[in-house]
Give the backbone structure.
Amino acid sequence: MYVAVKGGETAIANSLDLVADKRRGSRDLAELTLEQIDQQLGLAVDRVMTEGSCYDRALAALAIKQARGDLVEAIFLLRAYRTTLPRFGDTQPLDTTQMVAERRISSTFKDVPGGQVLGPTYDYTHRLLDFSLAAAGERPEAPTAPVDAGQALPRVGDILEREGMLEPPPAQDGDASQDITRTPLVLPADRPVRLQNLARGDEGFLLALGYSTQRGYGNNHPFVGEIRYGQVPVAFAPEELGFEIEIAEIDVTECDMVNQFAGAHNIPPQFTRGYGLAFGHAERKAMAMALVDRALRAGELSENATSPAQDEEFVLSHSDSVEASGFVQHLKLPHYVDFQSELVVVRTLRAEVEERNRQTVLDQAAE
Amino acid sequence: MAASIVPDTDAQKRRQRWLSLLAKAPAGRLEALWAEVGAVPAYTLLRRPEIGLVMVKGRISGSGAPFCAGEMTVTRAAVRLESGEIGHGYVGGRHPRQAEIVAAIDALGQKPDWRKPLEDKIVAPLAHEAEGRRQLVRARAAATKVDFFTVAREAGT
């Protein structure tokens, strides 16, 4: 049991000032601007928007600055801010075929219509530190090439789906209005609820779980059917207008993972799918989400759920970094009363054991 | 709610096109173009610019059942001209001034004599600039288009 403490106001106030001082760092250096964070630490902004579950680049940049680059703390700040805002409604579901794609790859088909577009990726870098970045100096603009006008980017999944080799996604699954920010998570959860939970979930946690499935803890032979990243329009239908309008273009990353499936009693052998969607450019997150989404479908697909990644209660209850960080870090708060009572209990137990041991020695000596 | 809510009159289709283009324009650019329009009829704010959230929905595997992907910030405003036309502005992000300008343009666009000047001075340039930005993204992506060779199969025997 936690018993509150009082006092310490001055020390706390001074500690906050010290944090602010550390945040500023050396006054000999220029202060970071939010625009610099947005533009030059863009992937950090993307992660904070995704797990903070709030698309707003400037707010995420502010959170990163305030948290001194601690992204889990920044995610917490963004989550806290969003609770102060009213909700205007739900958007129309994103249509990712409308994406102006900066990147689109498939590792299942070499010759996909629309082609393999690498875009900005670290995949083919050598992971050698680039010391030229340590020096100032302008970089050349990225090269361009003629655009194949009218070249659409059909979903790779649709191609396999038409052949009947890939399961179509469910058209309806549970109550479409379910939202875990409005109603608490109830288990077992429908797939849309699981996906909302995973979309907000900690990247490191989901990455480890996804990795565990690849290493054999619930393996389902994944392939990247498709990853795409780019801008999609967001359509919203305000009640007062009565028709939908586009209110923004946002960057999203989408991963459609394709998994081998030997079939079940009522399902023929085919490929099944897991899905990942993240704000900004966040492929590791989207892929991990897709792997875990597929693993959590074990029950639906009559697979033996024996591994952590297939355990819905385990995954969904521990995915949120705000909850996890809060509960772990509350251990730092004063637990003096709590600990004193534990100390009394342990002292009593210790005394009893020592008394028993002494008695045993006396009894043995007497024999 | 998953079905798209399409406008059914030409007037609504024009408003939809304008509102979408105005919302997606860079806030600063819209303010600059609006300032160049000069004097406009007075309006009153029916709804002062208000910042809130919308829940962005995705679909399972891109085409299946909807799910909550995460929220985004939105600013909205509504205005009424003295002649009675009501305009609405909804823009992604936290941009109170932009939302108000969008609402004002939406209201003015319902007056026939204002339609062409606003189309020429604001909507058309924004549409042109948006297309330019899209083309640059596409052209940079096109430079990274790749043809992989599957060595085992294409090396032959």
Chain A has a mean pLDDT of 93. Chain A touches chain B through 88 residues (CB under 8 Å). Chain A has twelve helices and seven strands. Residues 154 and 280 of chain A are 21 Å apart (CA to CA).
